[in-house]
Specification:
With 206 residues, the protein is of the alpha+beta class. It is built from seven helices and eight strands, in the order ββββαβαααβααββα. 42% of the residues lie in helices and 27% in strands.
Length: 206
């Protein structure tokens, strides 16, 4: 259990969600401030054309800023949240959340520290989507996983970097021809992360 959860355990209830469960979706109302105790929550956005990009992941001891934003603004969710692994979280109801936010300095620090960290992550996602080519984004993303099999479908990889599966498929095949990876059904076997990282280096394009 994360240390940040303990001081507020008596102010909420523990909830559980199985792997793959949809925790929220566009239009849902935020009912509680959530602190993840176990598992991971993947937060993603889907546009009108059905293209999905992963915004961030919420790990043990962290809270979801989209949930927090919806609570504070009284607006519905605009994205999706999915459980990765069996998720356990502490849910602090809206009324208790607002009371803690107004009176507990430690709780305010927990909430707004999470905002600051996520804003940095979201800025990186936006910069990557706007400023970098798909092939370089994919190369850098793959390089971060190191040597060995990456058990993800091409559709899942496309969602991670915010592009179409067909684009990922073409780019992976070009990387395979270079000998940097080997493609399999439902996985990518990474052979040369250093070469992928070098390919994704913006200085290479200058």
């Amino acid at each position: 259990m994360a240390a940040t959860v303990d001081p507020y355990a008596d102010r909420g209830t523990v909830i559980h969600a199985p792997d793959g469960a949809c925790l929220f979706q566009p239009g849902d109302e935020s009912q509680a401030f959530l602190i993840v105790r176990q598992g991971t929550v993947r937060v993603e956005q889907t546009n009108s054309e059905g293209r999905t990009v992963v915004l961030y992941r919420v790990h043990e001891g962290e809270s979801c800023v989209l949930t927090t934003s919806c609570l504070i603004s009284n607006r519905p969710y605009t994205g999706y949240g999915y459980a990765e692994g069996d998720v356990e979280a502490l849910a602090i109801g809206a009324e208790a959340f607002r009371g803690l936010l107004a009176k507990d300095a430690g709780f305010r620090d927990l909430v707004f520290r999470g905002f600051v960290e996520r804003v940095g992550e979201l800025t990186e996602v936006i910069d990557s989507l706007l400023l970098h080519r798909t092939d370089t984004r994919l190369a850098v993303w793959l390089a971060r996983h190191g040597v060995g099999p990456l058990e993800m479908t091409q559709q899942e990889i496309a969602q991670e970097i915010g592009t179409a599966r067909e684009v990922v498929s073409r780019t992976l095949k070009s990387f395979e021809r270079e000998g940097w990876l080997v493609l399999g059904r439902g996985f990518v076997d990474l052979r040369d992360p250093a070469a992928l990282a070098a390919y994704g280096n913006p200085a290479r394009l200058v």
